[in-house]
Amino acid sequence: MLKKLFPGLEWMLTYKKHDLRGDLSAGLIVAIMLIPQGMAYAMLAGLPPVIGLYASTIPLIVYAFFGSSRQLAVGPVAMVSLLVLTGVQGLADPGSSEYISLVLLLALMVGVIQLVLGLLKLGFVTEFISHAVISGFTSAAAIVIGLSQLKHLLGINLPSTENVFELLYRAVLQITSINFYTFFIGITSIIILIVMKKWIPKIPAPLVVVVYSILLVYIFDLHEKGVSIIGEVPDGLPMVSLPAWSMEAVSALMPIAITIAIIGFVESFAMAKVIATKEKYKVHANRELIGLGLANVSASTFSGYPVTGGFSRSAVNYGAGARTGLAAIITATLIILTLLFFTSWFYYMPNAVLAAIIMVAVYGLIDVKEAKHLFKIKRIDGATLLITFGATLTLGIETGIFLGIIFSLIVFIWRSANPHVAELGYVEEANVYRNIKRYPEAVEKENVSILRIDSPLYFANITKIEDMIQRKFLEQPSLHSVILDFSGVNDMDAVAIEHLNELFITYESLGKNIMLCDIKGPVRDVLKRAGWYEKYKGKIESHSIDEALATIKE
Fold this sequence. Notes:
two-stranded antiparallel ribbon; mainly alpha; elongated
């Protein structure tokens, strides 16, 4: 019972000593990464930088206890920060006390929405996000995030855009403006990260390049030669706060709160699912909603703003060796300690080294093999991946995944609306009935058509079955019976029953037979409630095709 309330207990009670090294390394690296990111994202959201650090403390600890992912790095992210600014700036001036108050209320609303969805067990909606969508989204988002770091790697100004082609074009135009010292730090950091990961994996390479780059900037005064550094990090602990609210404010913020709650969860869960698949454990959508919901409620309570699972930080967290939620607790603890005592230590850290860490981390998430595999196995799944991938690259991460989901749902609806129906013939050697298209030796019964339906029957696909039956009778005037093999039908709705009922009546009046055989239990229950076992006695009781054939009167 306690493990259901606190999923974090699962890894806490079974914690292994050999996981501590990876958790410590990942916690430290993500903390180093999150300090400048948290500040930058808060500024992007129109908030004082320190609020980004507040959002990087208590919410992380709360998620570690209540979330089901062991490696997801929760905290401020760029996408949510932009949504916050977009949704709140029309109600108050960014940076003002009223604006901050509204953002705190927004965080509370996002948390409550996610919490309610989780408690009502509505996380099943994520089951409609196909593997092809997640794979395409992950690969494209990795490229988007990696290339978004070009400005830090090259030391040039580039526009904030998720269209990678525009980004690359702008970068080429400014190729002569590259800061050599910045580029040197970035490229050498990438080389060190790759080499150490391959040849010295036990040593935390990200930590090595952070120390290396800080020393390089400090010793050679590179910050005076155009190398962008973190600079001053404000200190202070998060204060407990209860956001002021009114019905007018709640009403005005509700659309953006719902948007952030859903987009934040979908992106977070997609990333959590990818890592969990690689690590061979399962994340639960409802627990993730509850974990993220409580994290956002705590963000509001401790002067933060909406948080979710960060794509790049999760990649870094996982790549740095995180094994359990302890890595997140270590990250939060280190940020709290940093706010108290160590803000000055990061003054000389260059942005280029953070760019290098992110680029190397997300590169491993680009999965070309999966794309080839999907196209080989099922082209439509490959197309789903490609559409998600292309949309994410050109239109942005959140738009890309939503377009992918929409396309996959369209594919799902199309498949279910066009059920597979096989016309069966008798294979004498095996004494079975098989699809005549796949088994040339299968012999059709004279004046009888046997159709096997391999799908549930409902309002969207019953007309296809109806048309097929009518076409059989029209094309073969001598045909006196159609046997529907229901061995592949596991459900029917009222509309499907009504359509079949009309067919039975119509062809019975013409002296033709329509019979059902091998009906599964759930479908039998529906037909019994519809009164078919009294109305069509002798036409639907057969347990096999042979039994159905035996009851047909020539």
